[in-house]
Amino acid sequence: MCIDKVRKLKRKIGCLFIDVEALYSLSANFVKRMIFNNLNVLEPFWVCLPMESPNSLSYLEPTWIWWDKDKEKIWVRGMPQNQFVINEGNNKFDFYEKNMSFERFVKYFGAWYGKREKAACLLGLRTDESLNRVRAIFHNNKVKYKNLEYSTKVNDVTYNFYPIYDWAVSDMEKFY
Q1: How far is 22 from 45, CA to CA, in rounded Å?
Q2: Which domain-ending residue is among 113, 143, 165?
């Protein structure tokens, strides 16, 4: 819907895809197809920077850093090769700190992309994946945009919106 709208407005929008290295090839292929089919309205950022996240698969390593160059030999898949990939060799984000969390990165991206002016970020967050995601949408202490439950104020210039928060896996399969 966003792509259709900006196409009618003859504008472009930023498209942030944070590639966590270990993802389904179907997801990566979908993102690639969406970007290349809509380059006339998208400014893509395919981020493959080392970031840290919890690792529920190991007692010995409680966190995981994807795209860690020191562990390149055991990467789940190779670094994507397209002109939109942003990695340690061509990082353009002044707010990025090595191994920062995904959540911190997203928090700063909107203000960076909007050049510190008003920005709305649409995030593909599905609450059926975890209780933490449910809390991100429905916790009572957050500031919302015009009282919309699926919005969250990030900072003075950025709001996040979660348009697919109530989708299930079966909805995603239909969309792909």
Answers
A1: 18
A2: 113
Say if residue 96 is in the same domain as residue 37: yes
Could you tell me whether strands 42-47 and 85-86 are parallel, antiparallel, or unpaired per DSSP bridges? Answer: parallel
Range of the domain at 121: 117-176
How far are the Cα atoms of 1, 55, 98, 108 from residue 25, in angstroms, in the given order? 24, 20, 25, 27
Look at the chain and report how many structural domains it folds into.
2
CA–CA distance, 68 with 55 (Å, rounded to integer): 14
Mention every residue, 6+ apart, whose C-beta is less than 8 A from residue 12: 6, 41, 42, 43
What pLDDT, in 10s, does the model give residues 6-55? 999 999 999 999 999 998 888 899 899 999 999 999 999 999 999 999 88
Percent of the chain with pLDDT over 70: 98
Contacts of 40 (CB under 8 A, 6+ apart): 7
Same domain, 28 and 98: yes
